[in-house]
Design goal:
This protein is 40% helix and 27% strand. It has 388 residues and is of the alpha+beta class. It has 13 helices and 20 strands.
């Protein structure tokens, strides 16, 4: 097989890039080691920046999002038993959209199928080759090794995929911060406790009240790295969550049986550079952020934006300026989002070694945020997403 762009990974970044290329008349194929149902079974992020919403609209995948998604004009920070609302819309003129990553993926998959895009699922041993010369991707399926020749390879295959492995073997430098805790998350078919997200700082640890719809809620509590899901019954989770929220919020909460429960350790990671000859790292293949800033999926979308611009200009304008600047442009935005996610994580979590001084610094920062329009504007600008 011969295509212009081979995309490894059929998560939202691979699908979004594939659709942008298809709409521009640039031939592409997506290869993934798992099947469609497995990908749609993943429970992931749900807060979309306005830039991500715009990209989904641009490719023609935004109709259901606008029907079923929830526009949020603000977000609340809770500490010392009180909620403080940050009015995103008033401070920036922008809002965010709450719409689950699974739904984004479903919409992009359906659009790809409707527009004739080719996706190869259940491909074993997917490997990029010779990306400094004649790039191609090999994979195994039905007992046979297949080869896809291409002009460029987009690695949209996550933190443990073959694209990052190939980059690591070719001079990649990684920058990492591992946090000493994780998030225990519960998904339940109960109405959200608030119409907007609540981030809570409490002496027992961080908590987040989020949602996927008006009838499905996603809640989290900070736990130690030694915690195990099986040690947490639904009742124990709900009791702990209530303890960390302001009283009126806790009393208003509706609880019910969990339909998914998991623990995610928190870490920050950035790979540099994001380009290796004709191989490009996109999304989680190039960076991981703690979910505190709601940036993971949104950073993947901005990577796609920059890479698509470069590929479009290469094929349609005969210019390689966008390709040559892809890594620098994407990393500039990535590091700002990493900084924001790190600062939100520092602000809202209890660290084992922070001591009394660290606790007072947190309290001072939260008090400053709740009383300073300038500080709230800075938080709001980062939360709704920096411009591309």
């Amino acid at each position: 097989m011969r295509v212009q762009v081979a995309i490894i990974g059929s998560g939202p970044s691979g699908l979004l890039l594939g659709q942008l290329l298809t709409n521009a008349g640039i031939d592409n194929v997506i290869i993934d080691r798992v099947d469609r149902d497995y990908i749609l079974g993943r429970i992931r992020a749900g807060v979309l920046e306005y830039g991500t919403v715009g990209l989904l609209d641009a490719v023609g995948a935004g109709a259901r999002m606008h029907r079923e998604g929830l526009v949020h004009d603000g977000v609340s920070l809770a500490y010392a038993g009180v909620k403080h609302r940050i009015d995103l819309k008033a401070l920036t003129g922008r809002s965010v959209m709450v719409y689950g990553q699974t739904e984004v993926t479903q919409d992009l998959m359906d659009l790809r199928e409707a527009t004739g895009g080719k996706t190869i699922y259940n491909a074993g041993n997917v490997t990029p080759h010779d990306f400094d010369g004649r790039p191609h991707v090999t994979y195994e399926k039905d007992g046979t090794t297949h080869r896809i020749d291409c002009d460029f390879i987009a690695g949209c295959d996550g933190a443990h995929g073959p694209s990052r492995i190939a980059a690591a073997q070719n001079g990649m430098k990684g920058f990492e911060r591992v946090y000493p805790f994780g998030w225990l998350g519960v998904l339940a078919d109960v109405p959200p406790v608030d119409h907007e997200l609540i981030y809570a700082n409490h002496e027992r640890g961080f908590a987040l009240c989020s949602q996927r719809s008006n009838t499905r809620s996603r809640y989290y509590v900070q736990v130690g790295l030694d915690s195990k899901v099986e040690d947490w019954s639904d009742d124990a989770f709900w009791d702990e969550l209530r303890r960390r929220l302001p009283r009126e919020t806790a009393e208003a909460m509706v609880t019910g049986p969990s339909i998914e429960k998991s623990i995610a350790p928190l870490r920050s990671f950035v790979a540099e550079p994001l380009r290796y000859g004709r191989l490009f790292l996109v999304g989680d293949a190039g960076h991981i952020v703690p979910p505190t800033g709601a940036k993971g999926l949104n950073l993947a979308a901005s990577d796609v934006h920059y890479l698509f611009e470069g590929l479009r200009d290469h094929y349609l304008e005969h210019s390689d300026a966008g390709i040559d600047s892809y890594s620098a442009r994407a990393l500039s935005r990535i590091w700002k989002a990493v900084r924001f996610s790190w600062s939100m994580t520092q602000l809202l979590h209890r660290f084992p070694d922070q001591g009394d001084f660290g606790q007072r610094i947190q309290e001072a920062e939260l008090d400053y945020l709740s009383n300073s329009a300038a500080a709230q504007t800075a938080l709001a600008e980062n939360y709704i997403g920096l411009p591309y």
